[in-house]
Structure formats: structure tokens, C-alpha cells
């Protein structure tokens, strides 16, 4: 490994190891991993996976550590393979309208680079400033404009992936269309680092729509009415570039923080944007469709005042964070059930006496119930957290944070179950990670879970990649009883660490607010 | 099987068996299959696949038989499982903007049913009147408007699939977004009937864009200039709903047939449509972007005259068919290489002295070189066809048609190779089937082919489903040496044929012209 990872670095610095225990899910591992290897090139990744496969060392691929489902948290005996330093945009071809990137590039960076050519990278997870494209690909991230312009899967044309054992697999192509063989690209997108490690991606770029977008802010008597209005928008044949719903909790938090009086206009907000040559006409159609449901409707085509209207969405999470630590959930329901689900979440919060604020990508039926853990309450709670729910207990954001009250997890459980009962899904865009494994079989069925385990074994026969993530009951995936022991993992890598590499201490967790 | 398929029908009528030898690829099987079973419900499909798995009977799933790559042709000893009678739209939900369909529904039927609610099914393969949605899903079919609105994969939210052995697998969901587990839906889309048999699909519908589309017809001095203009359209930031290129051969065929004088305006035609509220503004931008390249530019926003402009595209294939039998090819290249590929195809045709006309979905870089086999020439050829090229020789459309000259196959071979050299793909939207197996490894690499074989074995461990299709060297997929013999296949099914079922004689091949 010495030669192969000479350009990378190997760290056992306690700060590095501790940082890799957590992401932004509130689901840290019980103890630090054995080692962090930072790859700077494909050869590093190949060398690590070759050795890890040979010695059955469990590997956790990791980008910026901004995940919300525990998909990149690492625990005892595990090797963290950080891709953050593989952060070059290798190519940006305006003529082909594609970019080829390494996994550590941030979505916003690519978007900005493309803008110089009148192009953009359409998927825009709210975390696009802090999360990496590798992580976006691992979770098939959505974003604000994905109802109109597609989620990450639609933007990924091809991948270079290193498989356990070190083999390099190329999937897909540089063309927009192509159907030769099975769609391995789509299978890998959203696989949360359990099938292979993405080392490069060919991504589709799209033209920036011409003209200025038009922005509509509409207020409603309650979130149910706002959700119904979102349905009316779609029924009117308008496909907005953005359609975001904020409930009364968000408006209250914004008012309290910023001294505004949004709640004088209504108890829920629907923010919409239309774009392209017909932006104004579409905004008018949209406004007409929702006016009867709304208390107040404001339209702007001027960038400055549009920005003002959008401020509520942009500042929504920071506003909520002032109330306590946010645990960000993510479910999706069929579009017709959006209003019903918004109500169900509020009722569940009341029943369990927990604070829950809801925002939604309303055009997708994708809701983010945000549980707010009061700092005082959180500090006093947690006695039972590690006991009853090995699956559910745990702290958040950083491994030292206070534990999450059981009531919050019980409410979350009910939210997930309700979404499934409505024909929805456990996760619209954040992934399963560790956090939602226990509900996966309820959504997919045992037959599908079993099939997926067997597919996983084709890519990773020894079960070394992000084991225990995504699919329930990892023991069933592969026999890992003969895996290298915890002590061995450190030893194997330690012996091979290049000189001077272990001192690196930058953290893998990105700064900045959590984002949805 | 008697009980389980009591509602279906089993046929050994020679007309049925003969029809199942061919599709529209020019690649019939050497002899008829053993039997055709027409399923009318999921239980029929489960019963057939349970028995077929048990007795190792090879099964060829088949819809309308309109495929262009031999993916649904059936040969000796094979059981044809026809899904054409499973043709109900089970549900159409305007509120959820989805439809749930059986595989035998035609895309155009669904599109029409959705139109009653202001919605549409976006993927519009040119075959949408005659091909089934099951076939569209099997090949991940594209279409004229897919550059803006997505290919079939983007429209498929979930599938019900029967696996070999008879198990029913549900993939995906009714929600627009969802990332729980691996994307089996996307893996199955485009798998050409080799992983499972689709018995139902939840499909996304989209609003019909408001207003009238605007149509632009532009003529150019040659196809190279037209292709360059297509690039200029995209570079100008316009995303047309349709952008079709026709070369001089097509214009000549249209003029000869219809008495028009298109070639007085230019030697190549680019047809574009913009849609939505900004259709006219976008058409103006588009026209401005291409004007310097063009000899003539015509714009229309009036439905009747737009229809007139689009007639050239609609009638292109019928016009070519008057010259001889068309063999429709399908490659895609990175967008920047479109003009180069158009030229390469023409040169290859000249070099091999074969007639080739090219049309292209120009916004996607997806080209359809159409080789025209002159009836006289075709009748006289074919002596060598069955000899040198077991892979390439063969007749077309119906099994009795004259063989394709070797020169055509040699030219096709060069077209495929050239597309791959340009970083393109063997097939943009028609699939690999039998026709392109020999080039698959050149595109995907041996490692990927091997991985795909192992994935296939997870779904179909005995290799009974559409064996020999898509991946090269079927023998490597699974050991089929102990498969039921040809005589046995007929015997197994024959013994179970319900009374009166064998007399059904309608053909599985759809009427109407081939379409791209």
C-alpha cells in the first residue's frame, strides 16, 4: 500500500477518526474507526480496495460527511476512504454539454464552472455548497429544481467505479442516450457506497433557461391549504422550476428571528418559481390557479425582490436551528396525498409532544419533517436512547452532542409508517444509510431485499463496502465472521502509512448548516 | 399449467409460430419456436415462468414484435410468452399524475387517455402507435421529444415483474422521487426481457405544455451544415421539444414520391419545435441561432402549416420504403460529433456501394442510418449471407424476405465501429437484441460484460429468459446443456394446452410501417 497510496495520506489522528464517526443524521457510530485514508487519485482507491478485499477490512467511503441518514459514518475496525481530495473538474465540454468530475467536487462548484458557458448542473440539493457530487451520486440527491429538471440520476451519464478487489469499472457513456447492456450507471446511483467507489462521473449539463425567472410567494390559512394549492398548480399544467412549502412553525421561527410579520399574511407559505421564455406567463397561470386557496399572493420578476421572496426558504433552516437541534427527515408520498401527509405529520408531533416543522418540495410530494430537539430537553434526555432502540438511539451532528429523546424517534417511526401506508417511500432523496434500515423491508418486501442482497454480493462478495448500510441485517449479506479484527485493521494500514502522512488533521465533516 | 393459464391461450398454429420468428430488425430466427403462449393476466405469466424455470424451457417475452434489434425473435425449442393481450390501462390518476398499465398497452393509447386530463405520456418513440409499452420499457425507448422530456426510463416509476420461477417482484413506487434500496426499476428498464417479465408499470405523466408549439423548418447546403446548426441551437440555450435532421436521400425520396421540390431549398432539413408559454420566443431564438448556417428558414405557429412542415419527418420512412427494404440502424455519439458522424455514415455508404439515408434526433446525437436494400439486389444476394456471418446474415421483416447483402452488413459494422471510436454507443434507443451482441464487449469492456452476466444470473440463474440476447456468448451465462430439448418444449406445453386454445391465429407482429 505504501507505493500505491504514496500520493494519498493515511491518518490516525484522533480528530480525524472522531470526525468520521458522525454525519448530519444524529446517528454517530459508538466509537471511532481505525483509520482514515485520503485518496488523491484513482490508484489510491484501487490500492485501498485491493488490500481491503484481500484482508476483509470493512471500508466506509466518505465525502464531505454531510449525509442525513448515517450512510458515511464509520465505526470500530473500519477504514474510512475519504474522496474529498479528489476534487478536480477534469473536463467541461460546452459542445458535448457534459462535465467529467472527480467525486470530491461540490455541486455548486460545478454549477458555477458551467455558468461561464451558459450551462448549469441541474440537480441542486440544498446542500450543494457543502456536499460533494460523490455523495450526491451515492444518495441520488434531489434538490429544489428537480421536479422540472430531474434528480441526480438523470444527470449522470457514466461513472468510473472501483470495485472491491480494485478493479476499475466504467459504466455508461458520454452520450445523452445509450442502451447497450444493463443500466449499471442507474444501479450505482443511489447505492450509497455499497457497490463500488465512484472515482469519476460524466455529468450532463443543461442550458441556463433564458430570461429572468418569475417568483410567486403565496400565503395560506394553513399548510393543508398550501398543499392543496400545490396540487392546483400541477393540475393547471404549470411545471414550476421550484415549488416549496413552509409550514407555520417555519414562519414563526423566521418572524421571531428576523422581526418580520409573515404570519400576518398566512399560516403557511408556498414559494414558486417559473423560468424560461414563458416565465411571466407561467407565473400568471400559476398565480391564477392558487389564488382562490390563498390569503395573499405576491409576484416578482425583478431579481432583487424575487430574492427577498425566496429569503424565507433560504433562511428557513437557520431559523429553525435557533430553536434547537434539527433532525431532518425525508419522506415522499404520491402527489395527491401531500396535504394529508402534512396534516399527519403535525398530528404525530402533537401526539408525541415533540416540535416538528415541515417543509416540502411540493411538486414532488417530498416532505422534510424537521424534528426540533430543544437543547435543554436534549441534554436531560437520552437515558433510554441507547437502550430500547439500538437502531434509533444516538446523538447527532457531532458524536459528543446530547442524545435524541425517545419521543422524537417514536414520532419519526410513525411518520415513516404513515408515509408507507399512503403508498409513499421512506426516503425521497437522503437515502437509507443506517437510520432507516429497519423500515426497508416494510417498503420493499422481503423478496426484493433478498434480491438486492444478492446483487450486492455480485459487486462485493466479501461484504467489505459500507457494510450494514442500506439493507437490513447485514449478516445475511455475506459471511464476515472471518473479517480482519479491529486491531488488525489498524495494524494492516498502519504498517503501510507513508511517512509524515498521519499528522493531517483536517476534518471530513463540512462546515455550514445542515441543508435539505 | 392447464389451470394456471386457463384464461390465456396456447398456440402451435404455424402462422403464430412463423410470425414469432421475426421482428423488424431483418434478423429472423432460423426456424420457428415451439409454442406461443398468450397471457391475459399476471397468473398466466407466473405459471409459465414457474414451469419454464422448473423444466429449463427457454422463454422469449414478446409484445408487438416491432423491435429493431432482434430482441423478441424466437427460435427452435423456445416458448414465446406474448404479453399483447395484457393491454389494460389499470389506472389513470390525474391527481398523482401517474398511470398504471399492463405491458400490452400502446404508448399512443396511453398518451391519448392521458390527454383527456390535460396530461401526456412524454416518451414518444416513432413506433408509439404500434409498439407496446412493455417493449418500450424493455428497450428504454427514446422518441422525438425525449431530449427535453426524457426517455422511457425517466417515465417509469415502478414495475411489477415476474421472475423466472414465478415470483412477483415489485420495484419502485408511485411517488415521483424515492431512493429506498437499489434502483431495480432502472436496472430492469432496458434489460430487453432478460431479467424478468414486466406485467405492470407505474408511469409518470406530465402536463401537456400550454399554448401551441412553434415549428421551424430550416434547410441547409448539406447534412454537415444541418448538424452544425443543431449544435448552434443547443449552444444558444434553447432546449427544443423536437429537433430532427433529414439528409438529402430523404429529401430526394420525399420529392420523388410527393412531387414536392424540397431540394430546391437545400440538401438537408432540420425540423425543430419549441413548446410551452415561451414557444414563439424560443422559436425566434432558435431561428436566429441557425440562420447563418441555413439556406432557407420557415417558422410557423399555426397548427395546420406546422403540420405541413412536420410532414417531411412523418413521411420520411414511408418515402424511403418506396426505394427498397429499409434496415434501420441506431447509434449515438457525443453531441459535438454529430456532424462528423453524419459525414462518416455517408462515406461508409459510398465505400461499400450501399444506399444509406440518415435521420437523426439531433439534440441527442442519436442517428438512424437507414440502409436501403434494393428489392432486385436483395433477391439476387444472400448466397453468402448465411455463410460468412452467422451473426450478421439473415433476412428481414418477415422470415421469408430476401436476404440482406453482405455489403450492407459490412457497412453497418463500420458504422458501429466508427460510433464507438467517437466515444459513442452501439444503440441509442433500439437495444442490442441479437443484432449487436458481437460489438457489445467492444463498447462495454470484458469486465463489465462479465459483471452483467453475473447480475443476470441473480435474476435468472438457469438462463431461461431471452437467452442469447443482449450479452455476447450466452453459453457463458449459464449452463443450459441440460435444458429441455426442442421436442420436449413442445411436449411440455402441448400436454397442458387448454381445449380450443390452439386455434388462435392472430399474429404478434403489428401492422404498419417500421418506425424510428
TrEMBL record, chains A, B:
Ranges for region Disordered: 1-30
Molecular function, one GO term: oxidoreductase activity
Stored Gene3D superfamilies: 3.30.465.10, 3.30.70.2740, Vanillyl-alcohol Oxidase, Chain A, domain 4 (1.10.45.10)
UniProt KW keywords: FAD, Flavoprotein, Oxidoreductase
Record domain FAD-binding PCMH-type: where: 28-208
Domain of life of the source: Bacteria
InterPro entries in the record: FAD-bd_oxidored_4_C, FAD-bd_PCMH, FAD-bd_PCMH-like_sf, FAD-bd_PCMH_sub2, FAD-linked_Oxase-like_C, FAD-linked_OxidoTrans_Type4, Oxid_FAD_bind_N, Vanillyl_alc_oxidase_C-sub2
Cofactors: FAD
Composition-biased stretches (Polar residues): 1-12
Stated name of the protein: Glycolate oxidase
Amino acid at each position: 500500500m505504501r507505493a500505491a497510496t504514496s500520493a494519498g495520506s493515511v491518518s490516525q489522528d484522533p480528530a480525524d477518526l472522531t470526525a468520521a464517526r458522525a454525519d448530519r443524521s444524529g446517528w454517530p457510530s459508538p466509537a471511532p474507526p481505525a483509520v482514515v485514508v485520503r485518496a488523491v487519485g484513482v490508484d489510491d482507491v484501487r490500492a485501498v480496495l485491493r488490500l481491503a478485499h484481500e484482508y476483509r477490512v470493512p471500508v466506509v467511503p466518505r465525502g464531505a460527511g454531510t449525509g442525513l441518514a448515517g450512510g458515511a459514518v464509520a465505526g470500530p475496525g473500519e477504514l474510512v476512504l475519504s474522496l474529498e481530495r479528489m476534487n478536480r473538474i477534469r473536463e467541461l465540454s460546452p459542445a458535448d454539454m457534459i462535465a467529467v468530475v472527480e467525486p470530491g467536487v461540490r455541486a455548486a462548484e460545478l454549477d458555477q464552472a458551467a455558468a461561464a458557458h451558459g450551462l448549469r448542473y441541474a440537480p441542486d440539493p440544498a446542500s450543494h455548497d457543502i456536499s460533494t457530487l460523490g455523495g450526491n451520486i451515492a444518495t441520488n440527491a434531489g434538490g429544489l429544481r428537480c421536479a422540472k429538471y430531474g434528480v441526480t440520476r438523470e444527470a449522470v451519464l457514466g461513472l468510473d467505479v472501483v470495485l472491491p478487489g480494485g478493479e476499475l469499472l466504467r459504466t455508461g457513456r458520454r452520450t445523452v442516450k445509450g442502451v447497450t447492456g444493463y443500466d449499471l450507471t442507474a444501479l450505482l446511483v443511489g447505492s450509497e457506497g455499497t457497490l463500488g467507489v465512484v472515482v469519476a462521473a460524466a455529468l450532463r449539463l443543461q442550458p441556463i433557461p433564458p430570461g429572468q425567472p418569475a417568483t410567486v410567494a403565496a400565503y395560506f390559512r394553513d399548510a393543508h391549504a398550501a398543499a392543496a394549492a400545490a396540487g392546483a398548480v400541477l393540475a393547471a399544467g404549470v411545471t414550476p422550476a421550484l415549488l416549496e412549502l413552509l409550514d407555520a412553525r417555519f414562519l414563526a421561527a423566521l418572524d421571531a428571528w428576523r422581526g418580520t410579520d409573515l404570519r400576518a399574511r398566512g399560516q403557511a407559505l408556498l414559494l414558486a418559481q417559473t423560468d424560461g421564455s414563458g416565465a411571466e406567463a407561467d407565473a400568471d397561470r400559476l398565480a391564477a390557479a392558487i389564488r382562490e386557496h390563498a390569503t395573499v399572493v405576491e409576484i416578482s420578476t425583478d431579481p432583487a425582490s424575487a430574492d427577498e421572496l425566496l429569503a424565507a426558504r433560504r433562511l428557513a433552516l437557520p431559523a429553525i436551528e435557533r430553536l434547537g437541534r434539527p433532525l431532518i427527515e425525508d419522506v415522499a408520498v404520491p402527489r395527491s396525498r401531500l396535504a394529508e401527509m402534512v396534516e399527519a405529520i403535525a398530528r404525530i408531533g402533537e401526539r408525541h409532544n415533540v416540535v416538528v416543522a415541515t417543509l416540502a418540495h411540493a411538486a414532488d410530494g417530498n416532505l422534510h419533517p424537521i424534528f426540533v430537539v430543544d437543547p435543554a430537553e436534549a441534554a436531560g434526555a437520552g437515558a433510554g436512547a441507547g437502550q430500547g432502540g439500538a437502531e434509533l438511539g444516538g446523538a447527532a451532528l457531532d458524536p459528543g452532542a446530547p442524545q435524541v429523546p425517545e419521543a422524537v424517534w417514536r414520532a419519526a417511526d410513525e411518520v415513516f409508517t404513515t408515509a408507507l401506508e399512503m403508498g409513499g417511500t421512506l426516503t425521497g432523496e437522503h437515502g437509507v444509510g443506517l437510520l432507516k434500515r429497519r423500515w426497508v423491508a416494510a417498503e420493499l418486501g422481503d423478496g426484493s431485499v433478498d434480491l438486492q442482497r444478492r446483487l450486492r454480493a455480485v459487486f462485493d462478495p466479501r461484504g467489505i463496502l459500507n457494510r450494514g448500510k442500506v439493507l437490513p441485517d447485514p449478516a445475511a449479506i455475506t459471511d464476515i465472521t472471518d473479517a480482519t479484527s479491529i486491531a488488525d485493521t489498524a495494524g494492516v494500514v498502519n504498517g503501510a502509512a507513508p511517512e509524515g502522512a498521519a499528522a493531517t488533521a483536517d476534518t471530513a465533516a463540512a462546515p455550514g448548516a445542515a441543508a435539505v
